């Protein structure tokens, strides 16, 4: 965790391991405390968890003591720099690598298509076009 390459973004997460992070690697879940919509909107560290058509929960990672390293992953500014997709799974938010990530590269997330549909955000490519089942690995970190 160090200063992000995105201007005025604060801290960011950089991969410093040997080799590459393969396509399909999962990270998560995103940790924080449950909060209300108004607090989540002010936080800058919150994700919405969809429970039903009329009920949502919010996970807020603003507090460092109630969160994990995933709070420092910034949003990608464009398709080329994106290397993670956020998606909801079993009541939590996970990040999935959508391309190979090399050592020294900053981890940058964007919404997965399913999550974006809930948020009504247009995203011009399909999940299957960005992620491959080949070489799929499930590495969960907390």
Automatic annotation (TrEMBL):
InterPro entries hit by this protein: PRDM7_9_PR-SET (IPR044417), SET_dom (IPR001214), SET_dom_sf (IPR046341), Zinc_finger (IPR050331)
Entry's Gene Ontology molecular function annotations: histone methyltransferase activity; zinc ion binding
CDD domains xref list: PR-SET_PRDM7_9 (cd19193)
PROSITE patterns on file: SET
Span of domain SET: 1-112
Top-level taxonomic group: Eukaryota
PANTHER family: PR DOMAIN ZINC FINGER PROTEIN, ZINC FINGER PROTEIN 154-LIKE
Protein name, per record: SET domain-containing protein
Gene source species: Muraenolepis orangiensis
